[in-house]
Structure formats: C-alpha cells, structure tokens
Design a protein that fits this description.
It contains 17 helices and no strands. It is mostly helical. The longest helix is centred in the middle third of the chain and has 36 residues.
C-alpha cells in the first residue's frame, strides 16, 4: 500500500484545500473506508478460496463476464498502472537528487529488475517483500519522529475542527481529493490475490487485511501531518515530490538529498508488491480461458513467469507514453468501480448462503468462512465513500471517467469474442 500516493498526493490536495483539519481528515476517511473494505474482502476471500481477487469474486458472485472484465481491468489498470506510477515517482525522487539520471529510464529499470526477482522462486519473492516492507515502515517512522523534533520553525497545522475546516470536509474539493487518497490506499486488498497460496485464509486473511490497513492509516496521517508541519503549503502546491520538499526543512539541503534517495528506495517495496500480486490475476484468467492459456504457465521454480512479464510489459507502456495525473485519476476511477461491485457482492453471497443456494468452501467448522466484523455497517461505509468518490469523478473529471468506462466496454467485447472462439475450439 505505502508508496506513490502518500508521497505525491498532498501537492494536488492543496490546490483545493488549505485546512489542516480537512487535509488530515482525508486520510482518516480514506483509511476508515479501506479498513471497512478490507474486512468485507476478508469474508469474500475466506468464502471463495481461490487466488485472483476481484476477478474470482465477480465471476463467482455475478457472472463470468463480470469477472473477465474485472481481470481485464486488473491486468491493464489495477496493477500495471499503479506499478507505473510508483516507478515514475521513484524516478522523480531519485532524479531530483541526481538530475543527470533520467527519471523515466530509472522507472523502466526498476520494473524490469523486480519482474526478474519475482519471476524466480517464492522464497526469493517473499523474502524480498518482507525485507523491503519492514525497511519502509521503519524509515517512515524515523521520518515522522524527525519531523516532530527537528523542525526549527514548525507551521501551524490546525488539527482541531473549526467551522471552516468542517465546511471543507463536505466540499466538492474534499470529495475530489479523495480520488488521490483512495488511490493511496489501493493495495489494501492485495492479499486476496494470493488467497489460494495461504495456509489458513480464514485466520490469516482478515488479520493481514485489517491490521495492515490500520497500520498504514496511522502512518499516512502521521506522515502528512509532518509534511504540513515542516514545509510551507505554498511550496508544495501542485508538486509531486512533497516528501523531498519537507525533508529540506527538516534536515537541510544535504539531509534532503539523503531523504530523497531514501524515499525513492521506499517505493521499491511498492512496485515489488504490485509485481508480486498482479500477475496472479493474469494467471487465473489463463487457467479459465483457453485463448489466454499461455498466461497460466508456471516455470520450473513454481512462479507464473509469463504473467509476471506480461504485466511488466503493460507497465512499461504506461511509463513511456502517459502522464502521471491522467494515469492516477483514470486508474483510480476504474479500480473504484471494481472494488465497489466486489464489496457489494458480500450481500448477495450471504443471501445465497442463507437460502441454501451456496455454501462456504470447506466441509467442517474449521473451514467456515470469516464473517466481516460490523456487518452490514462496514461494507455499507465502504460502498458509501467509494460511491461518493466515483460520482465526483464522473462530474468533475469526465474525460478520465469516460476512458475508464470505455476500457470496460472493450473488456466486454474481448470477453464476447473470446467465449465465441473458445466454443468453436471445443467444438
């Protein structure tokens, strides 16, 4: 989860919001929604115990066409686009310290390197992810501690609610800014993409999803508080590298360069997580549709090599051809639709189970699925916040929303052609 969004979003949010209370509430509201979504997904994942995330959920709950389009979104936008965005941010931070290094080619090199790492063994893949994530959390905590203790002239953030701050929370600017926050929390559902590889999903899936998301929410609020406390808002407006700017006020020019390198390295873990989880969707599609059978291949070391390098190729295409903000809003809208439908599916799943039309995977009490804590409030909170964000994207960013809907239409067309071709092949 931790990566591109939290190190880039504040500059965009400051264009429409200046209240410290409203800016921090963005991360609280987004975090609460993500936790509610995580609890809902934990129930879906422990009931439908197969890797693939929304692709598996929507196929199982609605129709194979919905699952296929979800997989199409995940393959083209859901993982490849965030991978590209994180890699672009990595390159931007590193090139801000070393201007001679071209940021775009740094991004390309990172995606290629991590695809090779994860294309090897599970041990190499999982070990790298544990190491990089631990280092990332430790460094963020150190940055927050430094921001609280080393700033010579701290800015007044205004964390307590005021009339102006509360009105900001209910403004259009707040809703539009949630686009960036929702993107920043994307990845809270990543564990559901490897459900089939978990030993005890009923126990481990909710713990991984909920506790991980809560921890990230605390880190995000703390990090943005430090950004606002350390640097003048005017210097961060519209800027991508807000972490580098804040570091200059905390550590001075030399320290800022060191932190720029550190923040760039933090993003390696983000790209790594996307390269690890995303190809499992492509692998599941390859298992289900003969036309894409090549994606289901497993190499001699037990990893889905073809799927990993296919996703890498799509990410490289984004890096080389698109702009940062367009990719972010476009992918945020499309992924939001994906998660909205999946979370809403928990109501249908429970209704079918209550009527005896569908039972949980497994035969005994130990195999019964996890039940989402706070149901039905938790899924409804997630649906309300996500729906609110999607509505404002449709209203205020119609181009990106239209591109997202167009991508869905293309996915439906490919599904129809694929099904027809597969029927002829079987015949």
């Amino acid at each position: 989860m931790i990566g591109t969004g939290v190190f880039t979003s504040l500059g965009f949010q400051l264009e429409s919001l200046r209240s410290g209370f409203a800016l921090l509430m963005l991360w609280v509201v987004g975090g609460v929604a993500a936790v509610c979504g995580a609890l809902t997904y934990a129930e879906l994942g422990s009931t439908i115990r197969r890797s693939g995330g929304e692709y598996t959920f929507l196929s199982h709950i609605y129709h194979p066409a919905a699952g296929f389009v979800s997989g199409w979104i995940s393959a083209t936008i859901g993982f490849a686009a965030p991978t590209a965005l994180a890699a672009i941010t990595f390159g931007t931070y590193l090139s801000s310290v070393f201007p001679v290094l071209p940021s775009r080619w740094l991004a390309v090199g990172l995606v290629v390197l991590l695809s090779v790492v994860h294309g090897r063994t599970h041990r190499t893949s999982g070990g790298f992810q544990r190491w990089s994530t631990t280092a990332k959390v430790a460094l963020i905590l150190a940055f927050v501690a430094a921001g609280l203790s080393l700033v010579a002239e701290p800015r007044e953030v205004g964390v307590l609610p005021s009339a102006d701050g509360v009105s900001n929370v209910f403004s259009a600017g707040f809703a539009v800014s949630l686009i960036f926050v929702s993107y920043s929390y994307s990845g809270w559902n990543a564990a559901t993409y490897v459900t089939g590889e978990l030993r005890d999903p009923r126990r481990t899936l909710p713990r991984a999803l909920a506790t991980g998301t809560l921890l990230v929410m605390l880190l995000y609020v703390g990090l943005n508080y430090v950004f606002l406390r350390a640097a003048p808002a005017e210097e961060m407006v519209g800027r991508l590298e807000v972490g580098y700017i804040a570091a200059g006020y905390i550590f001075g020019p030399v320290g800022a360069d060191l932190m720029g390198i550190t923040l760039a390295l933090l993003l390696v873990s983000t790209v790594s997580a996307m390269v690890l989880a995303g190809p499992r969707v492509l692998h599941a599609i390859g298992e289900d549709y003969p036309t894409f059978r090549f994606l289901s291949s497993i190499n001699a070391r037990g990893t889905p090599g073809a799927a990993i390098f296919t996703q890498a190729a799509i990410s490289l295409l984004f890096i080389l051809t698109e702009s940062f903000e367009t990719i972010l809003v476009f992918s945020g809208f499309t992924m939001g639709l994906n998660t909205f439908l999946a979370a809403g599916g928990v109501f249908l799943l429970r209704r079918r189970q209550a009527s005896g039309g569908q039972s949980a995977t497994g035969d005994g009490p130990a195999d019964e699925p996890y039940r989402a804590w706070g149901y039905p409030v938790t899924p409804l909170v997630f649906l309300a916040v996500t729906g609110w964000t999607l509505a404002y994207i449709l209203r205020d960013r119609p181009l990106e929303a239209g591109l997202g809907l167009g991508l869905i239409a293309v996915g439906l067309g490919i599904y129809a052609v694929t099904r027809a071709r597969d029927r002829r092949t079987r015949a």
